[in-house]
């Protein structure tokens, strides 16, 4: 094959590749917020081992966030999104280290004790397989929200059973 034929073949390949890209982009349907909500429902039905999962659509890009301790679940999330017609996907699922329940309890205690807004509150903490039970008393209603927000952000906490009550004077 001479140089002219190779150059011609290369131009043809680039033309075909560019045409396919334009064709694929032209046929892609814009993703709506409603389809993002439908995807979240489908992801939850798939029994994924992903916690704190959220799905948002911004400028046609589906952004999926959450946490998992199983690396293969990250790929499953992307496959399910593609199967539901989402083409532009930002899979932001974080792989978190497996933590034992005692470590979770210690970290929750540490985080709650650092929060100045929770001074004067008393908490009981229990963790079983990443499910945290937070009990105790607070002085103001807003302190309940603050405590719940803090404990849901602790790595390893899969869900929270919240039994904190308001201390009556």
What's this model, at a glance?
The chain contains 5 helices and 6 strands. With 169 residues, it is an alpha/beta fold.
Question: Topology of this protein?
Answer:
Layout: H1 3-27, H2 33-45, E1 50-58, E2 61-68, H3 71-83, E3 89-95, H4 101-114, E4 122-128, E5 131-138, H5 141-152, E6 159-166
Parallel strand pairs: 2-3, 5-6
Antiparallel strand pairs: 1-2, 4-5
Describe the structure in your own words:
- Strands 1-2-3 form a three-stranded mixed sheet, with helices on one face.
- The chain is α/β, with parallel strands linked by helices.
- The chain contains five helices and six strands; from the N terminus they run H-H-E-E-H-E-H-E-E-H-E.
- It starts with a helix and ends with a strand.
- Helices cover about 45% and strands about 30% of the residues.
In whole angstroms, the N-to-C terminal distance is 93 Å
Gyration radius, in Å: 24 Å
**Low-confidence runs (pLDDT<50, min 5 residues)?**
15-29
Percentage of residues assigned to helices? 40-55%
Q: Count up the helices.
A: 5
Strand content: 25-35%
Multimer state: single chain
Class from secondary-structure proportions: alpha/beta
The whole-number mean of residue pLDDT values reads 82
**Largest β-sheet summary:** 3 strands, mixed
Q: What strand line-up does the widest sheet have?
A: 1-2-3
């Amino acid at each position: 094959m001479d140089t002219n034929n190779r150059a011609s073949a290369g131009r043809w390949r680039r033309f075909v590749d560019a045409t396919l890209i334009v064709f694929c982009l032209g046929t892609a349907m814009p993703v709506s917020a409603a389809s993002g909500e439908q995807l979240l429902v489908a992801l939850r039905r798939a029994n994924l081992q992903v916690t704190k999962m959220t799905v948002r659509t911004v400028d046609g890009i589906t952004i999926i966030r959450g946490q998992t301790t199983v690396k293969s679940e990250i790929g499953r999330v992307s496959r399910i999104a593609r199967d539901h017609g989402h083409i532009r996907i930002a899979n932001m699922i974080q792989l978190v280290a497996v933590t034992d329940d005692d470590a979770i309890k210690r970290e929750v205690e540490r985080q709650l004790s650092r929060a100045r807004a929770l001074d004067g509150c008393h908490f009981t903490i229990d963790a079983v397989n990443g499910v945290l039970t937070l009990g105790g008393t607070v002085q103001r209603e807003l302190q309940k929200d603050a405590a719940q927000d803090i404990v849901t952000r602790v790595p390893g906490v899969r869900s929270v059973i919240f039994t904190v009550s308001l201390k009556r004077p």
